[in-house]
Known about the structure:
With 180 residues, this protein is an alpha/beta fold. The protein contains seven helices and eight strands. Strands 1-2-3-4-5-6-7-8 form an eight-stranded mixed β-sheet, with helices on both faces. Helix 4 packs parallel to helix 5.
Amino acid sequence: MKGDIAVELLLLKSLEGAAFGSKLKEIAARKEFHALPDEPFIYTVGGMQDADYPSLLMAARKAVEHGYRVFILPNPHGIKTPDFILERRGVYKLFDLKNISGKNIVHTRLKESIAQANRALLNMPQYSTRKLVHDIRKYFVKYPDAIEVVIFKGKAEISVTRRFALSFRFYFDFKKMFER
């Protein structure tokens, strides 16, 4: 396999469609990735000493509970890169993780993620449904390249696509899923 993994990750920004998916699969197959000893579905290239590694590992474990294989991406100095490649049933997706702990932080955290990936993964406990709907819709309106927001809330996984977020029934349908 060619090139430094950081260069490969940067190359993703210029790819679309099948070429993007093929490159994700190629990156995930790199020999640098190794499964964690007690976590056979979580792969890493190191970075265990990074300050954000514990939160990445916690979210990776939640993703595994939802049936994903998780590739924790390196964070080369000076380069904004996404956090994960998630694979399920042969489909590879690139995500930037955003841990949500404050009350009015989703919009800010989603805004940060757009420079790193067109999919965001929100790991969150409780949040105002009305505010979350507003922030997610605003994210899709403001960033036309955004594709999906996945929310891990407890044991639940909620996927919000652009089409869903911009639909007339988004608030009502999302509220049912989020407040279960």
